[in-house]
Amino acid sequence: MTSQLSFEVRPNPQARSTAERERVLEAPGFGQTFTDHMVSIDFTEGEGWHDARLEPYGPLVLDPATSVFHYAQELFEGLKAYRQANGSIVAFRPYANAARFNASAARMAMPELPEDTFVESLELLVQTDREWVPTTEGHSLYLRPFMIATQAGLGVNYPSKTYRYMVIASPAASYFAGGVKPVSVWLSTEYTRAAPGGTGFAKCGGNYAAAFVAQRQAVAEGCDQVVWLDAVEHRYVEEMGGMNLFFVFGDRLLTPALTGTLLPGITRDSILTFAADLGLTAEEGRLSIEEWQAGCESGELTEVFACGTAAVVTPVGSVKGADRAWTIGDGTPGPVTLKIREELMGIQYGSRPDTHNWVHKIA
Ligand code: PLP
Ligand code: COI
């Protein structure tokens, strides 16, 4: 699909001053402050996508009966713009996000957006707000494309006939305040994130809404994050709240296979692809919590890490469940985890060669 739309550009007359922006960029946190502009494109059944625009960042006015508020017909994406050492600004595999956006859209009975329009919308926002892309090492501009159902009315016989696609952007430091400090995880046997035939593979807000209660339980149990297990037996590991998982057996990596109930992470796919470049083998498969614990106890399972756009590569140090608890290795970040993190960030920030053609120059 090629892009037929041209974007109207409405600059923000109240864009923040250099001093204000620099104050934010000193300690951006994650998803707290947004840049001066946003992108919107509307969709109407029969007419298609129209009114593409870049406009000042600001609130929306929507009828209280708007479908998204009641039936959560919504989806989102997440990717980052990185400032490389040579000064250029790049995105990492944005066409992969465009494809996943459309896979989510199909599952949510929402319209697909041409991939070129998706990428063009990111380019326009990042180019306009380029001063918001942090220069600090390890920081980035987090991009959040999303789509909502905008038809007003409470009927559920038919999906909304109108939608809005938007992109907002937020300067980001590390998702986890501790940087590469290992996280502790809680095995959720009480709650299920996704079941076969459900929406687990789609990046829809409802998956996250249903996860908060388990995340809150994880924190109450003294853990940082929840680990989701399969819906049927509550034994097989699926993923974390916003990250995929990798298990390291010496120089062999194992990650849960894409069964339809977990998100097909782009970081996960990238690691599966570049593992061989680092002399590692990588495979998709299945691991039960019993095998996880036994592997750690025998020493065969040497490291575990989580990966995702926001979390990058984060070691998992310890595991706790209703009836079990154990540590992974000695609880500190392992060498394979650190090597993978360095390779990934090296490609993203430009210090390592981009042999897989993943880096997309924006500015
Ligand atoms: N799993 C879930 C539930 C997520 O929300 C994310 C974050 O996007 C991921 C995995 C990792 O995906 P990606 O590597 O594409 O960011
Ligand atoms: C991401 O890594 O982009 C995510 O979506 C994780 C989370 C903030 C939902």
Q: Into which percent range does the helicity of residues fall? A: 10-25%
- Tell me what the CATH architecture of the largest domain is: Alpha-Beta Barrel
Helix and strand sequence: EHEEHEEEHHEEEHHEEEEHEHEEEHE
Strand content: 25-35%
Ions, cofactors and other ligands present here are: pyridoxal-5'-phosphate, 2-OXO-4-methylpentanoic acid
First-residue to last-residue Cα separation: 23 Å
Spans of at least 5 consecutive residues with low confidence:
none
Q: What's the alpha carbon Rg, rounded to whole Å?
A: 21 Å
Report the structural category: alpha+beta
Q: Largest beta sheet, briefly?
A: 9 strands, mixed
User: What is the CATH topology classification name of the largest domain?
Assistant: D-amino Acid Aminotransferase, Chain A, domain 2
The CATH superfamily of the largest domain is known as: D-amino Acid Aminotransferase, subunit A, domain 2
